[in-house]
Amino acid sequence: MVQGKDDTLRDYLTRFNKESLKIKDLEPSFALAALNSGLKDNFPFTLSLMKKPAQDMADLLKRAEKYVNADEAMEARKQKTSWTDQLVEKEEHLRSALGKNQKMKEKPELTKDDRRHKLTKRKESPKRGTPIPNSNNSPPPWRQVPGY
């Protein structure tokens, strides 16, 4: 029995376990060798077993569980936001930002006279309070106090 091209490690282990339960008095070392030889080539788990062979079936299954969990976590992460989805989202954001910037440029600029007119309107507004006298001849208030 071999791991299929599209089989995940979990799928292969489940299928292998079901088949191995059908065999009476299956020698654990034979089951270990069969499972090991059926794994995909150039698969991270297969490479791990080549570097450090499993001591027994329990060791192999314990190590396999870590790889299954890692594979499933990576798959969930890919489904959450893929790299291409992030690029598309970023491009849409940039386009909308450029559109807003373009609209700002389309607004007519105010001339100096227009701005002066707006400023004078503000000064005369009753909400602003008492205007400050614009006389350079009078001394500052702290100088007007005697003995200071």
UniProtKB/TrEMBL annotation:
<feature type="compositionally biased region" description="Pro residues">
    <location>
        <begin position="138"/>
        <end position="148"/>
    </location>
</feature>
<feature type="region of interest" description="Disordered">
    <location>
        <begin position="92"/>
        <end position="148"/>
    </location>
</feature>
<protein>
    <submittedName>
        <fullName>Uncharacterized protein</fullName>
    </submittedName>
</protein>
<feature type="compositionally biased region" description="Basic and acidic residues">
    <location>
        <begin position="103"/>
        <end position="127"/>
    </location>
</feature>
